[in-house]
Amino acid sequence: MENSLRSCFTVAFMVLLLSAGQLQQTEAQSGCDSVQLSWCLQSIVSNIPPSQDCCRRLRGQQACLCRETRDPTFGGYLRHPGARRVATACGVTFPRCN
Question: Using an 8 Å Cβ cutoff, are 13 and 21 in contact?
Fold first, then answer.
């Protein structure tokens, strides 16, 4: 029951993100795209190992992680203990953010 609830919440959250619209021009120029992190949500909120796609996308967004932790959409997930576990499994050093 708990896993299916998490899965439903994750899918609903991903749909919300994907329907949010286009990135702002500054985000597109900087290469930061918070939607890329949605590939890791299932692994962050559950004990599922991250996929290769998740790790590849997480590595691509590594420079943006501090900014994303302050984002109202993704911040809660990136502050979740599972985010550090996923980052470690992907070989990504999770930065210390102010």
Answer: no
